[in-house]
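Async update (no meeting this week)

Hi team, since we skipped the sync, here's where things stand on the single-chain job. The sequence we agreed to prioritize is pasted below, unchanged from the tracker. I ran it this morning and attached the output directly underneath so nobody has to dig for it. Comments welcome in thread, and please keep replies under the output.
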Amino acid sequence: MVHVGVLSTTREKRKTTELQIYPTAGQHSVVSSHAGLFIPEVAVGSFLKQGQKLGEMREIYSGETLEEYSAPKDGYLVTLRHYPVMFEKESVATLLTDKKQGFWPF
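Output:
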């Protein structure tokens, strides 16, 4: 319909990407060691380099930084803490690393 002129759009066509398959062994979680407020610095769906900052944990009353979180390996960020109040040993983020070679997972 766009080609004929019945419909029009101003959106550009999205770039196509290659299908990427990650094994379950390549899943890495980042866990908090303090309770406080989590302030993220990256977005879900981005590719992170090892050591890139994910966010930081701040003390609720004083606002001082208790801990900074970084990516343990190069990987694709699939989950990130949404609710800011955190307890000790809760998951901050999950990265997929070690992409499987080949097309099919089996």
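Quick observations from my side:
The two ends are 40 Å apart (CA to CA).
The beta strands are 27-31, 36-40, 47-48, 53-58, 65-70, 75-80, 85-86, 91-96.
Reply here if anything looks off.
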